[in-house]
Specification:
The complex is a heterodimer of chains A (about 300) and B (about 240). Chain A is mainly alpha-helical and about 300 residues long. Helix content of chain A is about 65%, strand content about 5%. Chain A has one domain. The radius of gyration of chain A is 19 Å and the shape is globular. Chain B is globular and about 50 Å long. The chains are: A mainly alpha (about 300), B alpha/beta (about 240). At the A-B interface, helix 6 and helix 7 of A face helix 2, helix 3 and helix 6 of B. Chain A: This is High-affinity branched-chain amino acid transport system permease protein LivH.
Chain lengths: ~300, ~240
Amino acid sequence: MNAIPQLFFDAMSLGGIYAMAALGIALIFGVMNLVNFAHGEYIAFCVFALIVPSTDAVAVMFIGKAPAILLIPMLLSIGALVAVASEFFVFRHMRNSTPVAMMISSFALGFVIQNTLLLVYSSRPKAVSLWPELNKPVSIVGASIPLLQIIVIVTTLIVVVALALLLKRTRIGLEMRAAAENFTMARLLGVRANVVITGAFALSGALAAAVALIMVTQTGVADVRMGGQIMLVAFIATVIGGLGSLPGAVAAGFLIGAASVILQGFLPLEARPFRDAFLYTLVIAVLLLKPDGLFAPRSSKPRV
Amino acid sequence: MSKLGVFDVAVRYGKVPALSDVSFTVEEGERLFISGPNGAGKSSLLKAICGAAPTSHGRIEVDGDVLNGRSPEAIARLGLTMVPEGREIFGTLSVEENLRVGTGIRRDKSAIETDIAEVYQSFPILGERRHSNAGALSGGQQQMLAIGRGLLTNPKLMLVDEPSLGLAPNIVDQVYETLVNLQKDRGLTLIIVEQSSARAARVGGRMVLLRGGKVVGDGDAAKFAESDLLNEAYFGQDNSKETA
């Protein structure tokens, strides 16, 4: 048995999902101080977009029938579209509201999306079989792990690198980083608020779609409530990472994934059902020691 | 034709009026100081011009284009740039990235690189540290960066809010020398908020004196230094009169 490599791959793949979800939240928080609690529902929406609308227990593939080369860009666009539409119809009208008012309206939007899904697909979780061959185990450094885990890890790395390149090397990336740090100043320099915010929502929605694809392949289930749990963890990751810090969100996502897998592996058997209690105790401890998060962006206060 | 016109402008924060009945015009290439005690409305006036604070009354024009109601990014496209109080540089971006943020609105893309090189020539320290985080610069260097960043939008009019704030006196001299030279080289119109009217008089130019959100004086900065209007503006005695 090779417990250590096994744990490593478990931790990396779980952390990767958390990191991508956390990135989606941090991107939007960065440019408009909005903690978008509808993000989990974007994920659920993307999962259900794969299947034919019906209330049956076994899902019939809709977009999910397309070959991967079409399916992936299609679903990423759907995610981006849902996020951009929610900005256009909801958050755009709340730009001058307090962060609390925006956050509450994001909850409201989440409920609207969730209940729409309930109406169309019913509350019964559905079996969805997307790319089942990816769950076949392969043998790497003596550990037997599902191919999907490797794909998740590689995907996360590609997403993080691509996002870093976009932010570092492109015009829109520069504007997004400037706007994330000081939105008013960026606008005074001619950065268009609408372009930057729409861009952030599109990226965030595409990330939600990526998470949706991974989750549905891994679990084989489409459940209207599936966004809630991951949204919670991802939100905690953005807080621990330092709200607004993108590298922080990624690092904290991996950290929580790792902590969760390690606790699962090393807690005494009778304590394992309470793993999440231990995990969130660690979260509280981190926040007590570092209230601004582990990787809070460096303050840009004027120096004398 | 005058470059900038401010007509009857009022700004209020909720029910609190910050500016009322403010009118003046600024000619192309002119240097105008806005002075007055704390709370006189100097920063509010600059914010109203660049679109960061909404006006509740009146009209602001640049070359016939009305600015009120436009977004800050639209106003920036008309050739106004702001060097705000406290610099507001992007501390997590590199020095060069700070300079590039404002270049997105320019049509003369080919001139951007030469302009950046020019800023590095004027401020060699910025060139040396072009790849380091701007947050690590000293206060004076950040002020130079903020000015350079504004210049890279290729402005016609530059608004500078309290450039001397929190800087050592010799650094302040340097900042003003830079601003005056820029104006000479580029024909830039400058509006500078400066609390020290003595400093404004030394640099030279026109001065608009604000007190309690109203214009209480408008004339040559050097003449203000001799008049007692300044004392009145700063210390009370409410019999405002105009100086030429």
